[in-house]
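note to self — DONT lose this again. spent like an hour looking for the file last time. sequence + predicted structure for the chain T wanted, 283 res
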Amino acid sequence: MRLLRVGDFGSERPAVLLEDNRLLDCSKIVGEYDSSFFTNGGLDELASSAASGGLPELDISALRIGAPVAKPEKIVCVGLNYTDHAAETGADIPKEPILFLKVPGTLIGPNDNVNIPRTSTKTDWEIELAVVMGRRAHYLAAADDALGYVAGYSISNDVSERSFQLERGGTWDKGKGCATFNPCGPWLLTADEVPDPQNIGLRLSVNGVERQNGSTANMVFSVEFLVWYISQFMVLEAGDIINTGTPAGVSLGNDHIDFLSPGDVMELEADRLGSQRQVLKSA
């Protein structure tokens, strides 16, 4: 299934996008796509209701699309998780995953505007496969069964302000946690429809010029390893998001590629996960 949340910011309603591209309103049977929904068997109930018919249709062309998950407890991010991205930034391949957190308040819809922070000079893009947890995961015994804890997959744009991240001291969080810095969506594709998360193409362009064209096949650490690994250090709750890293093609490390400016347009797409479009604005 393709799960969406549509409507004005803060007033989104849950919906399902069918294979024939009809959008069904699920708000009568689902409160939200959140931790409670995933934990309490909401996916199975929703699949049954969608198949039985009777849910009202919505006009997707007239509605804003929000992030596909409501109020995740945390967004866990993985740095330097593609071999080509590590090479372009001059970094060594990490021996263990590099983890940092993004505040949930960065989460916006896939086509919402992205704000360039005040005093920033190096705002950058990063298309990533987003993993949404479907069950609580803590101290998983092995990576082999980690995908069974995943609800589904989406697209994240891990927007980054490199001057805050790398030139202002401390951790990366200052350059990652700015408002609007995590567009996500348009939908959550449930895990049963993604048999191999290590075979997803990711593409991003800026002002119509392709900047990133990669595949999750080039991850240093696979999705199942990341879910297992992260669970050794923190509790992953249902509804949490893992941003799994970005392929080569960001502005950082490429002197011939400009950082983002107001008026620039980012367009992202991933195999079977839909597309995004964001316009850059001044904060």
